[in-house]
Design brief:
By secondary structure, the chain is an alpha/beta fold. The chain contains ten helices and eight strands. Strand 5, helix 6 and strand 6 form a beta-alpha-beta unit.
């Protein structure tokens, strides 16, 4: 099933991030474990030439794939120019279900969206803040700007330093317009609960890891998978049907 169809089902999804180390083993592990979405963190690849990147994407055939080429400005590992990053986005747009590009990447944002649209590829426009959680008005403005730029889904991921920050992010979900598709994450130890319970408020995807923990507050895949099946009966039914 495509990522677009999975999102349209209204059932939350579990995404796991992968780099390009031992990609064949990682892809097989993702399939056998029941990963819903393979996020390929191209900014963390050992090589980012187009041929290599395409080869890694193809290894995950049969799984919904999200391609992320995260800018260093928002915590990513990209070391090349914006022109080179755009070239990678254009190369993978026909091969993946979705791309993730930051709202702050104004130099290439419109071109990435155009490339995705040409192949009916979903666009996640994202905002990350590793220091703090902005106030409600600022976050609402970020969501509005991302939608205006052409986002199919808006991703907001901010550092939670208090329970009040978690409440601000929860409120963003609760008060979202019906036509606004959101992924919302509270980073940090205080925000760990958001990774399981924000989907109940409308967050479309929760992110986890297999092996190395890339982001503060994330739970491992096995625990995330177990808790999602425990608290979301519709998720459990879908995974049971797939396994049958």
């Amino acid at each position: 099933m495509t990522l677009r169809a999975l999102l349209d089902s209204g059932i939350p999804l579990v995404a796991v991030s992968f780099a390009d180390d031992d990609v064949d083993r990682a892809a097989e592990e993702a399939r056998s474990a029941g990963v819903d979405v393979a996020e390929l963190r191209i900014d963390r690849f050992s090589r980012t030439d187009v041929g290599h990147v395409r080869e890694q994407v193809r290894a995950f055939g049969g799984l919904p794939v999200l391609a992320t080429v995260r800018s260093a400005f928002e915590g990513g590992g990209w070391k090349g120019s914006e022109a080179e990053r755009l070239e990678v986005f254009r190369a993978v747009a026909p091969l993946v279900d979705a791309v993730d590009v930051e709202l702050s990447s104004r130099e290439l944002l419109a071109d990435v969206i155009t490339a995705a649209r040409a192949h009916d590829t979903l666009v996640i426009v994202s905002y990350h803040n590793f220091d703090r959680t902005p106030g409600q008005d600022e976050l609402t403005a970020i969501v509005r700007d991302a939608k205006a730029a052409g986002a199919d889904v808006v991703k907001i991921s901010t550092m939670a330093t208090s329970s009040a920050d978690v409440k601000v992010l929860a409120s963003l979900l609760v008060n979202a317009d019906d036509d606004t598709e959101l992924i919302v994450i509270a980073m940090g130890a205080i925000g760990t609960a958001s990774r399981i319970f924000f989907p109940a408020l409308g967050s479309k995807v929760t992110y986890t890891f297999i092996g190395h923990q890339p982001t503060s507050g994330q739970l491992g895949f096995a625990e995330t998978f177990r808790l999602m099946r425990r608290f979301y009966p519709e998720y459990d039914r879908r995974k049971t049907a797939v396994d049958a």
